[in-house]
Amino acid sequence: MGSPITEQIIAAITLDSSHERAVYLQLADAILVLVREGKLRSGQKLPGTRDVAALLHINRITVSKAYEELQMQGWLESTVGRGTFVSAHIADHQPKALGKKQVAGPVKKAGFTIPSISYPDIVKPSSTLPLHLDDGYPDPRLAPLPEFYRAYRNQLTRSGLYYKFGGYGHPAGSDHYRQAISEHMNNTRALKTTAANILSIRGTLMGLNLVCAALINPGDVIVSGIPGWKRADHNFLHARANHIGIPVDEHGLVVEELRKICKKKQVRMVYVTPHHHYPTTVSLRIDRRLELIRLANEYDFFLFEDDYDFDFHYKHRPLLPLASADTNGMVIYCGSFSKSFSPAFRMGYLVAAENVIEHLSRVRILLDRQGDHIVDNVMADLITDGTIQRYLRKTLPVYEERRDLFCHLLNSELRDAVQFTIPEGGMTVWTEFDTSIHLETLAAKAYKKGLYLSDGKAHQYPHYKTNGIRLGFASSSKEELVKSVEILKRLI
User: Where is the HTH gntR-type domain (predicted)?
Assistant: First the structure.
């Protein structure tokens, strides 16, 4: 028998036989907490298994299993003929006074300091609401999910399981995927690539973060348009880069302002979304595109081209990417199937010179080792069998009809409250509201009515103020668009 104090401590343990965690493990956990709190000291003898069983009204075997568990972990020591003791190798903790029971729970605040860099807020997910005028996402109800399921099942049942599952692959992605993406880029975007120019990523943000980690040093100058994508801006901040914003007008990035900066500073990277600038959706005019490439070669900086919605253009074929006119390896081109299928589908690619891909692969292996090669191969199958192109051809007229209806509704129902230009492509309408309308208040009221829309804070900058937000139309049916605009009309 242990001391009366020890028995009192043990007797205070509460066990729950209905809990999914086994009772002996609950007992082991409780004893471990007592040791960590200093209530059971190093070298202190514990009551025998029979006594503990009597104190807690449980089976003696349960106590034995708990003791054995803690002995295997090194918390307890048992000697034949002497009994069970708290390990002598454990440093004593200052015991806490008996009294109000302290229940261990999830830790809310770390005991160490974290960097004070200001990161963006985590926004409320729009998918939890029945209606959403989101940031410009595709409709997952139109995605080729049956074909995806079938291709995934084929990957799991085909021969060569060890080759696919038994070891690690190349950090740049599976050979099948890289070859398929290379051919897809060459056929649809007039790039000149081989598989060695391709790296698989889990979406645009990962690609941008990887490039910053691999190619940007603290203090390097990164230039991008203002307003821009705050997630990209915070990647630059995280990389400890010197981020400089330049204006964006109705023709895209004002490239002449970039030249002025290049004359004063050594620019390392320019982040650009030439197809549809984020967030305003304007396209970079052809003369500015060519000038941007000339400046990259003249001043020795590289371009990160985020081509997030190349596949969706309604009026005419989209202008080819900057990368298609790059003959000196100055462009890192980034695309994502998240913008074609669903944001939940994390699959994309970087296209760059072979030595850049090799360097990025060596850095990527430190973070992620490799992507999901099974999904890589699934996507490669869907590209090579034509599924992706058929899906894009099918959805393009659907999204165009939704765009036309949505813009008509904005004009007819909210004419005096909003200003916008009908976009030639993409999945969203950049909409500027009358200054009398407070967007944060509007978004909060709409959320309570079951409609998600941005509160506009993501598009505010110290020297750029706008009362505009992106209103995505592609992920909503026509009926949902009508209901969404009706809610906005009532709230405004």
Answer: 21-89
